[in-house]
Design goal:
Largest sheet: 6 strands, parallel
Strand content: 15-25%
Number of domains: 1
Number of helices: 8
CATH topology: Rossmann fold
CATH architecture: 3-Layer(aba) Sandwich
Length: about 200
């Protein structure tokens, strides 16, 4: 197992742009930290909901949106550190079986917000195997560009819940910050999903 994630060929922001390239009405929940910056770098959008706190809560926020809006595809894009903190949410998602939900972990095997310490995935914790054991029917791991091309239509279109880990290079990137005003983020998504009234 290669645990030197600085040598992984995929770059998180390129992966994010590939996932969001033809997003239409895709709802995107981003775990706090790097994933929030990544979706903003790909283009801020009213259907982006970047978390500024609540570490471990991205998947459950995505579950709530998926259940409330079954006519919208919901993508949770989060990091390995955040997902490790919220692994119990995978069991709840598997029990609820939202057909419109995909959870994608950008796994650089590092805690990017606190100094790039190795996470559990650097030592062999297999998040897709955890998701499969919880009851997800569709799981996968992406390690290269060919795998990403193959996985994108599954992530964005297959009946869920879907879980993928995408191994990305550990790198320090410039911040591309969304607004940190929770009321603005909530209100703009509400209007985008429900209309002005």
């Amino acid at each position: 197992m290669n645990t030197d994630s600085q040598t992984f060929p995929l770059h998180r922001r390129e992966v994010t742009k590939a996932l969001l390239a033809n997003r239409d009405d895709l709802v995107v929940v981003a775990g706090l930290g790097s994933c929030a910056w990544d979706i903003t770098d790909a283009g801020d959008h009213d259907l982006n909901f970047p978390l500024w706190g609540a570490m471990g809560g991205a998947a459950t926020v995505g579950l709530g949106l998926a259940l409330a809006k079954p006519d919208h595809r919901v993508l949770v894009l989060t990091g390995d550190g955040e997902m490790l903190m919220g692994m119990g949410s995978l069991a709840t998602i598997a029990l609820q079986k939202p057909r419109n939900l995909a959870v994608v972990v950008l796994d650089n095997e590092r805690y990017g917000e606190t100094g790039m310490q190795k996470t559990h995935t650097a030592f062999g914790v297999d998040l897709p195997a955890v998701a499969q054991a919880a009851g997800f029917q569709t799981v996968g791991t992406v390690t290269d560009q060919a795998g990403l091309v193959e996985a994108c239509p599954v992530i964005l279109g297959d009946s869920g819940p879907v879980f993928y880990t995408i191994k990305v290079q550990a790198e320090n990137l410039d911040f591309v910050l969304p607004t940190n005003d929770g009321t603005v983020l909530k209100d703009r998504m509400r209007k985008a999903l429900l209309g002005q009234a």
